[in-house]
Amino acid sequence: MNSILNIKLGLNQFFSVASTGFNIKKLNYLPRWIILSIDIMVVFLSGILGCLLLKGIGVDFALNRHFKIIVLLYFVVTIFFFWLFQTYAGVIRHSTFIDEIKLFVSQSGTFVIMFLLNSGFELWQGQKLFLNAQLFVSILLSFCNLILYRIIIKLVFKHYFLEKQKRALIPVFIYGANSNAVAVANALNSESPLRFRLMGFVDTNNRNRPNRVMGLPVFDHLRTVPMLMRSRGGEILIIADKELTNEAISTIMDDCLQYNFKVYSVPSILNWENQNEVFKKVKNFQIKDLLGGNSITLDNNAISSQLKGKTVLITGAAGSIGCEIVWQVLAFGPEKIIMVDQAETPLHHLILEVEKVVTGSKIHGVIADIRNYKRMDALFELYRPNVVYHAAAYNHAPLMEENPAQAVFTNVMGTRNIADLALCHQVDLFVMISTDNAVNPINVLGASKRIAEKYIQSLFYNSQNVVNNGTKFITTRFGKMLGTNGSIVSLFSKQIACGGPITITHPEVVRYFMTIPEACQLILEAGAMGNGGEIFVFDMGKPVKIIDLARKMIKLAGFIPDEEIKIQVVNSGPGKKLYEELFNGASETFPTRHDKIMMAHEIKEGFETLHNDIDELISAANLFENSNIVLKMEKIVPEFKRIHSTFEILDQ
Question: Total domain count for the chain?
Answer without folding.
Answer: 3
